[in-house]
Design goal:
This protein is of the alpha+beta class and 393 residues long. The chain is 28% helix and 28% strand. It has two domains: 195 residues, FAD/NAD(P)-binding domain, CATH 3.50.50.60; 147 residues, D-Amino Acid Oxidase, subunit A, domain 2 (D-Amino Acid Oxidase, Chain A, domain 2, 2-Layer Sandwich), CATH 3.30.9.10. It has an eight-stranded mixed β-sheet with strand order 6-7-5-15-16-17-14-18. A six-stranded mixed β-sheet has the order 9-2-1-13-20-19. The radius of gyration is 21 Å and the shape is elongated. About 3% of the residues have low confidence.
């Protein structure tokens, strides 16, 4: 008689947690995922919806750029129909921007990101609302995605393969004895009841909240939550993703989302990802900088402004804005880094790299459990997002 499969408890119902549940379920493990709110209600459901080509990071963060372009191609293959394959334009408005052009093209080439330099006339033919004084533009394979529906495809497929997905269930403490984590004490916010979920491995996939979860195990995680403000204005003012051709800065991005245009984003660091705020000066900067790319932004009606926290890896100390930290991701086996067994953290990264993050983490989990099972998520086409609510019907 065969023994029961190893059980993994995933803490965090964002895109990374969903992708990890999918990966582990495909490898034959028993999976339970808990999320204190609704699925994707944290950072995943609040980002601008950009499927990165990696071009934004090519000059200063090539590791992240390579991750993005590789996952960009994989996600288009396994999530057909989830993206507007509208491409992006990096636009030079000043002489300083033009000085960035050659290093940008060279860095993209080194990272394997295809580019197409355009004249101002060619760029305006594609995007007539662009600032007519632009000096040059470069086309890259960016795209627009729905920040909730694309990740839901991972959750739907995980459920179809046996994973338990439990929204509104919050981890209030980890079960730790003799520096071994064996599960979590949880509170069901629907019933008000508390209980325990035992597991062979607990994975901390709580994004900017991962530091809080790690402290329950006595672990100091090198993570800094870095919020950014986004502003949605009414009107689809562009059909391609528009970015300033310079090193990443505040308000240098416009992402078309259905009948809206999303302006982003700023960056600072906080200690508590539940206490972000939406600074009005950041909102003004988004609108002012967005209007430099597309003058019609200045006349557009504001639909909403919000903030979302990025989980950036690499500093236990102070980081002024968060832009100095890489957008890459990292898996921590806390037995190796902190002497705590049965506990793994996956954090950092971007919405574009959720599948790769899950693969790297699942490899670590399987190695800990002595399980020899290959990743299958690179080629497995995901169920539609609607299957999450219909159980695959």
């Amino acid at each position: 008689m065969s023994s029961a499969p190893a059980h993994v408890l995933i803490v965090g119902g964002g895109g990374t947690g969903g992708a990890l549940a999918h990966d582990l379920a495909l490898r034959g493990l028993a999976v339970t995922l808990v999320e204190r709110g609704e699925i994707t209600s944290g950072t995943t459901g609040r980002h601008h919806g950009l499927l990165h080509s990696g071009a934004r990071y090519a000059v200063r963060d090539p590791a992240s750029a390579v991750e993005c372009i590789q996952e960009n191609r994989i996600l288009r293959r396994i999530c057909p129909g989830s993206f507007e394959e509208n491409d992006g334009l990096f636009v030079a408005l000043t002489e300083e921007d033009m000085e960035y052009l050659e290093p940008f093209l060279e860095a993209c080439a080194a990272c394997g990101i295809p580019t197409q330099p355009l004249t101002p006339a060619e760029a305006l033919a594609l995007e007539p609302n662009l600032n007519p004084d632009l000096k040059a533009a470069v086309r890259v394979p960016d795209a627009t995605m729905d920040a909730m529906r694309m990740p839901l495809r991972f959750f739907a497929t995980a459920k179809a393969n046996g994973a338990r997905i439990l929204p509104y269930v919050e981890v209030v403490d980890l079960l730790v004895r003799d520096r071994v984590v064996s599960g979590a004490r949880v509170r069901d916010h629907v019933t008000g009841r508390e209980g325990e979920i035992r597991a062979d491995v607990v994975v901390n996939a709580a994004g900017p909240w991962s530091g809080k979860i790690a402290r329950m195990a006595g672990v100091d995680l090198p993570i800094r939550p870095s919020p950014g403000v986004l502003v949605a204005v009414r009107g689809r003012l562009c059909n391609m993703v528009l970015s300033r051709l310079h090193r990443p800065g505040d308000g240098d991005l416009i992402v078309p989302q259905r009948g809206l245009s999303v302006l982003g984003t700023s960056s600072w660091t906080v200690h508590d990802p539940d206490d972000l705020g939406v600074p009005e000066d950041h909102v003004r900067t988004m609108c002012e900088e967005g209007a430099r790319l597309v003058p019609a932004v200045a006349r557009a009606e504001r639909r909403a402004a919000w903030s979302a926290a990025r989980p950036l890896v690499g500093s236990r100390g102070e980081a002024e804005t968060g832009r100095e930290l890489s957008r890459t991701f990292k898996t921590f086996d806390h037995r190796e880094s902190d002497g705590v067994e049965g506990f793994v953290t996956i954090t950092g990264g971007k919405g574009t790299t959720l599948r790769a993050m899950a693969e790297a983490c699942a490899d670590v989990v399987c190695a800990k459990l002595g399980i020899d099972a290959e990743c299958r998520t690179r080629e497995t086409v995901l169920l539609p997002h609607t299957a999450y609510y219909t159980d695959g019907r």
